[in-house]
Write a structure and sequence with these properties.
Length: 235
């Protein structure tokens, strides 16, 4: 069956990054911001991770945004909802400092453009743990924009997360294609290559490889941007 859509992961794939440095800077900046709003800095990291956990475990009963904020409210109280606007400002301003943990590869733009030139749909299948404002910012760091994609996932428009297969099924329904008509490109063996279980083709970008369970990756098409570009041209 011919490929009609290419799904791209963002962090560590189209956007090279030092994940540990990214998270360190992110929590440092977020903690500083929330401290100005009256949150105890020493509790912020654990509380945010609990919110992330709620999104990862989301069973589709609500949007990830709601799952996160309901968890945050269960820790700090319902007043937290009034601070969503302040967090929006944070992602529009201070969040840009996290970019120093990220690299840049011109191949990211090239592979997305090649997908579009072939008449295929380009989809940004980034784990929807961030709001749209933060996702758009990270796209920009990679030299891309929302207009490059027919669809991209955020915590506002998603009710599942990777590695839940229902996350991928949600995208398939949104863009109107079958699994066998998709190629999933990502750097995380557990979160991205799992799409193969639905019948998708997969490509493992190894520049910022994440393989936390030390799985055998010998059977996956894989390589850097040069190999990915060649693979896409051959679709």
């Amino acid at each position: 069956m011919a490929i009609k859509a290419v799904l791209f992961d963002l962090d560590g794939t189209l956007l090279p990054m030092d994940y540990d440095k990214f998270m360190h800077l992110y929590f440092k900046l977020l903690g500083t911001k929330l401290a100005t709003l009256g949150y105890a800095p020493e509790t912020v990291k654990d509380s945010v991770w609990k919110g992330v956990g709620a999104m990862v475990k989301n069973d589709g009963s609500c949007q990830n945004e709601e799952a996160f904020w309901n968890t945050f409210a269960s820790i700090y109280g319902e007043h937290v909802h009034k601070d969503k606007g302040e967090l929006e400002i944070f992602y529009q301003t201070e969040f840009s400092k996290v970019q120093e943990a990220c690299g840049f590869h011109p191949g990211a733009k090239e592979v997305v453009e090649t997908v579009k030139q072939k008449g295929l749909m380009a989809v940004l299948a980034t784990n929807p743990l961030f709001p749209a404002v933060a996702t758009k910012a990270r796209m920009g760091w990679a030299g891309l924009s929302p207009e490059d994609f027919v669809y991209y996932t955020t915590y506002e428009n998603s009710s599942y997360c990777k590695p839940n297969l229902k996350y991928y099924e949600m995208i398939l329904e949104e863009i109107g294609v079958k699994p066998q008509e998709c190629l999933m490109v990502g750097n995380d063996v557990q979160e991205d290559m799992i799409a193969e279980k639905l019948g998708m083709e997969v490509f493992l970008l190894t520049d910022c490889l994440i393989n936390s369970k030390q799985q055998d990756i010998s059977g996956y098409p894989k390589g850097g941007f040069a190999e990915l570009l060649e693979y896409i041209r051959g679709l």
